[in-house]
Amino acid sequence: MKYGIQLYSMRDLAEKDFEAAVAKAAEIGYSSIEFAGFFGRTAEQVNGLLKKNNIELFGTHSGIYDLINDYEGTLAFHKAIGNKNFIISHHNLRTKAEIDEFVDMVNKYQPMLEAEGIKLGYHNHSMEWLPNEEGIISHPELLSRTNINFEIDTFWAFNAGRDPVALMEQYKDRLMSIHIKDGFKDGRGMPLGKGEAPVEAVYRKAVELNVPMIVESETCDPSGPAEAQICYDCLKSFE
Q: Which of 28, 94, 105, 189 makes an SS bond possible with 218, Cβ 3.0 to 4.6 Å?
């Protein structure tokens, strides 16, 4: 089995030594990386780093305003690094007006990116599964009003009181990847196998659906690399 890692999991190292964080992900055994920023590195530097460590680029966590503010520059960078998955990591969807505006943005930029061979995705936190300020649950709005792909963060869905396995089944035709993640119901994140989220059931469903699994661990306790190792070992124990 192959597993990816969201490099935010090792942000304590990445912020100090980006190259060392990529190397550590490969050393642990992860086959791909999902980036959350590039710390000023050029596309050429990113490509060299991936090649040096024999690790693939799965995608990025990015903001839709990167596209709005500099579409051509953003597109050029992502094409230069061979990115196929441009995943919006967060967007305010607190009101109907904010949802409507975001839907319009998505419906403008998704076909433009797809014409360039890049999928546009959305990564949830818990808020998208809970009523917003106006009582609207925003995630179903994105499902019905756009063609965006989804990266379901299974822990945040669990935190919102949803069954992540059932959501994976419901969204399977639009599911580009999952964040496989653990923690407690109150929102405290933990490395895989150390919380109360249904991690093994999520794992089994991802295997069934052949959906890429991206590890994200949030607490950097005692360190991001240590958590990344714990998570990798947990996944290997399920095989």
A: 189
Whole-angstrom distance, CA of residue 25 vs CA of residue 55: 8
User: Among positive and negative, which fits the CA dihedral 96, 180, 164, 83?
Assistant: positive
CATH class for the domain made up of 4-238: alpha beta
Give me 30's structure tokens.
């992860």
Spell out the domain ranges in the chain.
Answer: 4-238
Tell me how far CA of residue 84 lies from CA of 77, 88, 93, 112, 239, in angstroms: 12, 13, 25, 13, 27
- How many whole angstroms separate alpha carbon 61 and alpha carbon 78? 12
- Name the one residue in this structure whose structure tokens are 């996944």: 235
Write out pLDDT tens, residues 84-124. Answer: 999 999 999 999 999 999 999 999 999 999 999 999 999 99
> What is the Cα–Cα distance from 102 to 142, expressed in whole angstroms?
9
Three-state DSSP at 203 gives helix
Cut 0.85: pTM above it? yes
